[in-house]
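tool_call predict_complex ligand=fe (iii) ion
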Amino acid sequence: MESQPLYLGCHLSNAKGYEAAGRVALSIGANTFQFFTRNPRGGGVKAIDPEDADALRSLCRENRFGTLVAHAPYTLNPCSSNAKVRDFAYRCLGEDLERMKYFPDQVYNLHPGSHVGQGIPMGIQRTAELLNEMMTADQPATVLLETMSGGGSEIGGTFEEIAELLARISIHDKIGVCLDTCHLYAAGYDVKNDLDGVLRAFDRIVGLVYLRALHLNDSLFDIGSHKDRHARIGEGYIGLSALRSIAHHEAFRGLPMILETPNEPPEHGEEIRLLR
Ligand code: FE
Ligand code: FE
Ligand code: ZN
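tool_result ok
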């Protein structure tokens, strides 16, 4: 069987439109990319121009792009104790899942949330409630839960918490997981020296079948710091050679691998070349 290609890209702005973002991806040697569904630190949402979305779809088809990753705004906290914040999470997730019809069969990534004092079990319960309320069997996109660094009151910093969340979701064929190398390392998973061990643990606790995307970031802090601070590839504690092995690991073949490093697209292109 022919092996699947490496799908590498980075987070890109869609401020100038979706096709424009796709062209930037092409220009830097990417064959996937990630975009925010709306202002990441606010709630505002701009209507999607169906022609623009169509143009991006053709561009991706013609250039054999892998799956694209839509990222929910950081302000979406599915398990907040504040009713207003939770209302926003319900509305935002509902609208975003509806908007994913313009990007059929792609993935929608979200952070499992911060329980802000309610405790992890309550956080997991609230996030699962939101997902069960808003997800539908015929929704166009798969929802991905991103593994977090476990800082503050974040949930999703351990595979056990992700497994616990997944176990409570009723629509299993529309849910998956996005691993983030910086978050994993900060959470104490040694992706630098023991990637196979980390993947075995993930498979045992969560299940590799749920693995749908990877965020490839170096980490500004050492293992177990619980600090979510991304570094450029090769400029952090994980390092280029480990990140390159991760990018080439068979577990991620065919899945979108997205850089979220503090760089502009031309430098992202350089990072993609280093990783390939
Ligand atoms: Fe994220
Ligand atoms: Fe990430
Ligand atoms: Zn992060």
